[in-house]
Amino acid sequence: MRRAAKFLALACAMVLALATGCAAADITITIAGPGSQLSTIAVSGLKSLGGDDDHRVGNAFVNTLRRDLELSGYFRIIDPHAYIEDPQTSGFELGQFNFADWRSINADFVVKGSTNVGGDGVKLTAYLYDVAQQRRMMGKNYSGDAGDVPRMARRFADAILEAATGQKGPFDSKLAFVSTQGGRFKEIYTQSIDGQDLFRLTGNPTINLFPSFDRSTRYVLYLSYKSMAPALYLADLQQRRETRIESPHGTVIGGTLSPDGERIVASIERDGITNLYLLTRDGGEIRQLTDTSGINVSPAFSPDGDMLAFTSDRSGTPQIYTMSLDGGAAKRVTYSGDYNTTPAFSPKGDKLAYQSRDNGRFDIFTIPAGGGDPVQVTDGNGSNEYPSWSPDGRYLAFSSTRSHNSRIYILMVSNRKIISALTEGNGNDSCPAWSGWLGE
Amino acid sequence: MIPVQLGRGGWVNSRSTLAKAMAVVGVAVMLAMAGCSSKKPAPLPGENPNGSQIGENGAGPSGGNSLEDWKTGKYGAQGPLSDIHFGYNDYTIADQDGSVLKSNASWLTAHPQTKVQVEGHCDERGSEEYNIALGAKRAQAAKDYLVTLGIEGSRVSTISYGKELPLCQEHDESCWQQNRRDHFAVSE
């Protein structure tokens, strides 16, 4: 139960102060986009103002922040061994340290800050400095338990991206995925984007697939064969219980949760025919959405919850379609390729990402949601499947077989650069779902 | 090295014995209610890593339910009925498989107390969900054929495992061909 309390604490109880007193010092500049030249950033150790003599709290922040900044694709982290000053003896406020120590190691930016650990928890301050301008760009105060420190780092990484690019980063969020790690069976896991807090949601050695979050990350919907026949299960992470979603219309073989968590679109099979149905969160039927004699699967909500993208074979091959949830005809979106599936709406709703087959393997493409020219974003290495957008829309998580086992990777959409694997690959990982920002 | 907290972090290990016992009861109740349109909240999963409620009754010595055989390591055994195979992204019964289905139907006619579940399976290419739908079409095609041959529809159920339970693990056509199949699980 302690873990549950902690999970809740992370979701609700963490108290985050806003920018420090000198808010007028906050400056937004636009750094060079990802690509030719990455910005360099040094993430200094945090000065212990008390209670963190072994720097465990400070290191938890610094290590998480470095990993998140690396995953952003905007920064090269300067090796800490090159840092000149000792963070424990130098100051962290503007004027209390020497910018020359950071300029001489070619840092464009430096992060400095402090911890104060006492009976009432952790108080942490972090600043982002522009080394060339010798200015403070942004600062944050955080307080919470020691276990909340990695999350403070994720929020600070998101704030650094906002200060440096004008757009908040996506790291204060969760990844759900399917993995066979630890055995032959596909189970649902969650973890932070930077790989911490790996948590196994299911523990039934059968088949579990297709996790999806609502925007608040309170619920995870997934398909499971745990009672032999496949059914959807809605896990309530707050109440720590779940509901089984079945249908009088047939066998539920897939589904997704609406952004507001109130509705489900389920793929329901009867007599070999699979159609999509709109259901309430507890499984009550609202309406049948498709009515063809073939296959209609892989439903995906638009961010406003008004539109649906899905895969249908009504043209003879699997293609992507969209439709309004208020009713109306389905509109075909993809025309290139003879196997297009697993659509996902971008957070702005203007694009779809999907997988398209070529030579027996898949690549990820994006296409305007209203139809248009597809853009290939993966590089033909391995089979690349199941795209899921980051909440800021800059990144896609997807599964790829490029390095033997299937793992989850992150790529930047604008330059199509694959930045890193997000999962360890102890087994085969698939079906990633990137949550919205936590605590929103 | 990415920190992993599974051992102490999961709900699996942090639950009390009482909670585990209650969870087992919950799963048992859920199984008993399978088939009804149960909407009752059940405990979250994770309490039952061995899944011992599932698969300990009813599975024949061979040719049983593929998921149970997969769990118990007996996977791939054939029963009294023979598998049939399909072309890529296809669910039509091939001519040569008509005779297989006729002999399966003869066996079912000679064993009127039995029931059969037709399992549709797919190769690894394609998305998970599309393949579950495709496997459902394959299972339905065999069911329709058996019914045409005079087997009562009430004796024949269907399920699709998509690409989730491959017989053969290699990534080539000979393997894919083995995996695109209907399997016939017989029960009393």
Short description:
Chain A is mainly beta and 440 residues long.
Average pLDDT level of chain B = 75
Number of distinct helices of chain B: 7
CATH domain class name of the largest domain in chain A: Mainly Beta
Strand arrangement within the widest β-sheet of chain B reads 2-5-3-4
- The SSE string of chain B, one letter per element, is HHHEHEHEHEHE
Quickly give the structural class of chain B: alpha+beta
The top-level CATH class of the largest domain in chain B is Alpha Beta
Major sheet of chain B: size, sense and barrel closure? 4 strands, mixed
Kindly provide the radius of gyration of chain A, computed on alpha-carbon positions and rounded to a whole number of angstroms: 23 Å
Q: Judging from the principal axes of the Cα atoms, what is the shape of chain B?
A: globular
CATH fold name of the largest domain in chain A, please?
Neuraminidase
Overall domain count of chain A? 2
Structural class of chain A: mainly beta
Query: Termini of chain A, distance in Å?
Result: 24 Å
Which stretches of chain B are poorly predicted, pLDDT < 50 over at least 5 residues? 1-41, 43-62
* CATH homologous superfamily classification of the largest domain in chain B: OmpA-like domain
Radius of gyration of chain B: 19 Å
| Beta-strand residue fraction of chain A | 35-45%
